[in-house]
Write a structure and sequence with these properties.
Elements (H helix, E strand, L loop, with lengths): L1 H21 L2 E10 L11 E4 L2 E13 L2 E10 L2 E6 L4 E18 L5 E16 L13 E15 L4 E13 L19 E14 L1
Antiparallel strand pairs: 1-3, 1-10, 2-5, 3-4, 4-6, 5-6, 6-7, 7-8, 8-9, 9-10
Amino acid sequence: MKKIALLAFLLAVCVAAGRAQESRQDISLSGMGLIEPFIGSPTDVYVHATPSYGALASYRFMLTPSSALEANYGITYQNKITYHTNPLVVTILTRNEEISGAYVRTFNYRKFNPFVEAGAAGFIFLPIRNSGTKAIDARRQTTIGAIYGAGIAYEISPSFDIRAEFRGMVTKVPSFDLGTTNSTPDLATNKWYNIYNPVIGVAYHF
């Protein structure tokens, strides 16, 4: 009886160890840039933004050796969004945040691992209160959208790889709730845009 119990215990330990080996996770920290395109709109509001730079932290959980779920948090330092209305020009310095989740499909070629991903995201546009912001009534705005991208990871060791990716962020052009009162110009464009998002960083597997 003791031998059977010992054998069952060893079998359970082996199964648990096997599952632990099959489970693969990684975290990554990357530098990134945001490049927002010029936007024209039927409301006669034209939007131009300067590039911004920041950081992206990601966590991946491998469902299979070639597919994973990913969670992301990104933040940028600041960029300048300029709204051209008739006859006013409104400038708002902005900090951008991203919270997203995506499905990732990886293709393994020895040390090179190309991948594609797509998912849903929330974006926070936060006005920075300083002399560069010309609309004191600008408010934080949260929008819902999507992310997609393609990239490649190069394995430099069993635990680390370098990742480079080009992502796209699809969301509605923010208006910072301006135009809701008579004292501020209406900055609504009623349009969506695709923000270009190059990313490069290092991932640690565990």
